[in-house]
Amino acid sequence: MADNDDELLDDPALNEIRQRQMQAKQGQQQEAQKRQMQERKHMILSQVLTYEARERLSRVRLVKPENADAAENAIISSVQSGQIRSKVDEDMVIDLLSRVGGSAPKTVVKFRRTKWNSDSEEEEEEEEDDDDDDDEDDE
């Protein structure tokens, strides 16, 4: 019986299954921690932000999620440190977003327009020129 238990403990397939189960359990725990952090973050923001400020952050999140996250994290840390004691309004969020988003370089898009003629268009133009020459000879 003891030999059979030792064989089960040393079985590589069984060890691999145990390893996978442990990894799955750790992944589930990490997901639960992330969810709890998100819930706490949402609860703090809902207490501190005015309706307009929340709307502004949600619109920014659609375009630049990293800026919205940085602004939210800055607001939460300010609240936790006691720097903010009143509701955060839209103007404060705009100011914070300009400081957070100001560090990123602006994207410049330049359009260069070139005239493009296909080979078939060039051939048509040449044929028209040839026809004009023939008309002159007839006169």
Number of strands: 0
Approximately what portion of the residues adopt beta-strand conformation? Answer: under 5%
State Rg: 34 Å
Q: In sequence order, what are the helices and strands, one letter per element?
A: HHHHHH
How would you classify the helix and strand content by structural class?
A: mainly alpha
Number of helical segments with 4 or more residues: 6
Helical amount: over 70%
Low-confidence stretches: 135-139
Outline the biggest β-sheet: none
Shape category: flat
Average pLDDT, rounded to a whole number, is: 80
Note the gap between the termini. Answer: 118 Å
Compact description:
The protein is mostly helical. It is 78% helix and 0% strand.
What is the element layout, followed by pairings?
Blueprint: H1 2-10, H2 12-48, H3 51-63, H4 65-81, H5 90-101, H6 119-138
Helix pairs in contact: 2-4, 3-4, 3-5, 4-5
Keywords:
139 residues; mainly alpha; flat
What does this structure look like?
This protein has 139 residues and is mainly α. Helices cover 78% and strands 0% of the residues. The protein has six helices and no strands. Helix 3 (51-63) packs antiparallel against helix 4. Residues 135-139 have low confidence and may be disordered.
